[in-house]
Amino acid sequence: MTPEEFRSAGHALIDWIADYRAGIAQRPVRAQVEPGDVRKCFADTPPAEPVDAARLLSELEQHIVPGVTQVQHPMHFGWFPSNASPASVLGDIASSGLATLGISWESCPAATELEQVVCDWLRQLTGLSDAWEGCIQDTASTACLTALLIARERVTDYCESRGGLQGEDKPLVVYTTAEAHSSVAKAALLAGFGRDNLRLVDMDPQTQAMSAPALAARIEQDFADGCLPAAIVASIGSTGVTAFDPLAEIVEIAAEHAIWVHVDAAMAGSAMLLPECRHLWNGVEHADSISWNPHKWMGTILDCSVFYVRDVEHLVRVMSTNPSYLRSSVDDEVTQFRDWGIPLGRRFRALKIWYHLSIDGIDAIRARLRRDLDNARWLAAEVGQAQHWRVLVPVQLQTVCIRHEPPGLSGAALDEHTLAWVGAINRSGAAFMSPSQLDGRWMVRVSIGVEATTREHVESLWKLLRAHAEEVAAG
Ligand SMILES: *Cc1c(COP(=O)(O)O)cnc(C)c1O
What is the value of pTM for the model shown? Predict the structure, then answer.
């Protein structure tokens, strides 16, 4: 491709993206394909002749878009807000265009240093003290794995430099709850702790937050049984119901026994941009590591997860290997982010945060988050007042967990009813929500916070919910 061909295909693509975003509300929310439908649009063998960019653009529209669940759609209320502000998209494009090689400071000093700058901006914007230093990881899953690896090495005084976990005589234990994201269990298993040593601590039945007394009791029990408590992963905004584990109490319990505390704030970290929400992570200054995803509610396009630690020296000691071909004369003066995580080659992700914060501005981002909190409170109040509808968990942020409970339905029959009405709405393409289980029964999570979602959309969702659920109930 010549530079001129690139320029013209690039302009066409940007125009297409701008139109696509502007018209997204006219499309169905959920992908309207069956398994295998997208695959069969494509030849089994690679293209023998070059295909021109204009034709690809039309195939993009024809074959790819129908297979996209439109998470930027204003009627998307599924999973979590996966916002991708157009300003951050520009930063992402700049990153691709620059095509840097992030394997060391030397391979792209700008990538390292802008990453330091934007992580520090986000630190300040979320009210964290300057005891924290951060980097950008691809996802919160990777950040949690990194946290558990460095927790493991702290409690074993660097077992990696001896026989590793295989040389330890006491089982190392990790604590979290059943409400924690699946990536926490995955990280614990991959970091070698083993399922037998992953404790799902009891929760408060009302809020689904970790019970601090249950945690303290479990730790005592484990010590008595000859185990070594290693790490606690606290959910600050859990996946199912956006529950907040009592961090202030957790860090106090952890401090008594020098147990690592990782704060998984993947979704709710964006709320910490609002001073009025920061009470939800009281105690955070005494944790050991934190991660949250600007690529969720805040809206810096995926993938973009920030990971902060207090003890950088420890992190680097665990994660670094230092082969001769990566050493340079300035190593003593610079940060090598390859030593802050698992991958060697790293994308220039700081550009998208820089673009996002600069072009959109923090005031507009904060106003949008407040709008969403307000919309969630509005919906919770409506549902709470409506006959046979219930808000199942107190709403602390932007997730509203609801159920339609018509008289006479309970147990499996109620589950069937819930799945029937939410399934009908999701299939229709008019809106999308994720059903989820709470105490073994299905409910519907309405996760508010797509950049395009206004009060009007939430009002029309509520009408849609009532119409479908009440129609299904009437048979
Ligand atoms: C989304 C989410 C994760 C996983 O995030 P990834 O960045 O996709 O790995 C982890 N924890 C919580 C609480 C989440 O909401």
Answer: 0.96
